[in-house]
Amino acid sequence: MTQSVPLFIDGEFCQSQSNDWIEVTNPATNKPIAQLPCTLDEEMQRAIESAEKAFMSWKHVAVSDRARVMLNYQQLLKEHHDELAEILSQETGKITLDAKGDVWRGIEVVEQAANIASNMMGETVENVATDIDTYSLIQPLGVCCGITPFNFPAMIPLWMFPIAIAAGNTFVLKPSEQVPLTSIRLAELFEQAGAPKGVLQIVHGGKQQVDYLLAHPKIRTVSFVGSVPVAQYIYHTGTSHNKRVQAFAGAKNHMVVMPDANKNQVLTNLVGSSVGAAGQRCMAISVAVFVGSAKEWIADLKTEMAKMKPGAWNDQDAAYGPLISQQAKTRVLNLISEGKAQGAVCELDGSQCEVEGFPDGNWVGPTLFSGVSTEMSIYKQEIFGPVLVCIEVDTLEQAIELINSNPYGNGTSIFTASGAAARKYQHEIQVGQVGVNVPIPVPLPFFSFTGWRGSFYGDLHAYGKQAVRFYTETKTVTARWFDDDIPTGPNLTIHLR
């Protein structure tokens, strides 16, 4: 018998009264592991009302006390790190190493949330005019919400609600309906950390529940990570309801390989960044751009990629796990077929992959294409699977032009021994996150996650200082006091508390 996933409303875990349920499955077996409710409108309303009520007191809590909740929380997350990783593996199919990385990157953001006071400081100028001072205050907005994807069920929720709540807001989280169990455990630990009743709510469901959040007048901000069409919908719908929105969308991340690069480093990093986590991450390298004679390494790349075998979460020899669903697998297999039909050379074909003992899993083996052009669907579309396509160019300038012509701008890397080439690349490339001899340049949380162009809709990015600004508003105060009003004389009494 599968478990029913609870709601978390007003500080309590409770069962939804909905008659509409979604089956949650283990991607390695496609067997059900839980049933998830599509939250009723009245339950959604109750969650938002609870968050609004909690905000009225939480915003007055000293910033140092809010930070201490986050300090407690990060300690609990560390103590339960392996347990969280196992829950995460069961619902995503991620191998243990990937699952632990997912949890740890979330913990790093919580640690940054514990440093919230330094990011809540305003500015002051004394004597902007005669006897007049002006200063700014950073204040929370109110009820915020987050809509998170399946591929990082620990990290991405932890990008959102700890910083928002540490800044003095309250938060409604709607995790992906495919991976709800990790979020429930995150909420349990958050409650144990001393978070007051109502500052975090968790609701479940699909588009109907998302639309409810987007339209509700008490929701002030919307944070989203997911596919391009949905990100566009979230952004346009949310902003049309006068909400502040950050919507992180798709990607087509390129790694440029210069002929002077360290070959072994290139091959190791290119393989790991393309098939790791089954390619289901928005910062995966899905295009290798070989400059000049570097194209001679494609044969060696094929050899190294062929060593990467998928498997179950607890298989110590597995390089990555299954795709999230049968639908996702079908989509990837269709794109592989289209690549072959459109004339790309399939150097390594993982479309017939099988894993012993798991005949019903959503397996796709490592797949490598060469001879790819920019008109092919395997180049134009985000595959979101363990598929790497190779393009050959003659010069660094051609590589830069190629990447800048792509509609996405999430992340990119260059591998080279030339400082001049690296500087030219990082200066001219129109992509938000750039790695130099680093395959996946995801910044640590004291910086912000800064995708550009078609990979992001909004103005302020996730975590770091930009996230604090996203979840807060600035109030500017101009004050004047008159010397004549200073109390004087023997009858002046000073009252000390």
Describe it.
By secondary structure, the chain is of the alpha/beta class. The chain folds into two domains: 3-250 and 451-479, Aldehyde Dehydrogenase, Chain A, domain 1 (3-Layer(aba) Sandwich); 254-407 and 411-436, Aldehyde Dehydrogenase, Chain A, domain 2. Helices cover 37% and strands 23% of the residues. The chain is built from 16 helices and 23 strands. The strands form six sheets. The protein has a seven-stranded mixed beta sheet, sandwiched between helices. The protein has a six-stranded mixed beta sheet with strand order 10-9-8-11-12-22, sandwiched between helices. A three-stranded mixed beta sheet has the order 1-5-4, covered by helices on one side. β19 (411-415), α15 (419-428) and β20 form a beta-alpha-beta unit. α2 (63-79) packs across α7 (181-192), α3 runs antiparallel to α7 (181-192) and α10 (263-275) packs across α11. It is globular, with a radius of gyration of 25 Å. The mean pLDDT is 94.
Strand order of the largest sheet: 15-16-17-14-13-19-20
Q: Helix/strand-derived class?
A: alpha/beta
Helicity level: 25-40%
Overall, the morphology is globular
Number of domains as seen in the coordinates: 2
The termini sit apart by 61 Å
> What is the gyration radius calculated from CA atoms?
25 Å
What is the CATH architecture descriptor of the largest domain?
3-Layer(aba) Sandwich
Number-wise, the strands total 23
Q: From the 3D structure, determine the CATH topology of the largest domain.
A: Aldehyde Dehydrogenase, Chain A, domain 1
Largest sheet: 7 strands, mixed
Mean pLDDT: 94
Task: Kindly report the name of the CATH homologous superfamily of the largest domain.
Answer: Aldehyde Dehydrogenase, Chain A, domain 1
Number of helices: 16
Q: Which CATH top level class of the largest domain fits?
A: Alpha Beta
Which regions contain 5 or more consecutive residues with pLDDT less than 50? none
User: How much strand content do the residues show?
Assistant: 15-25%
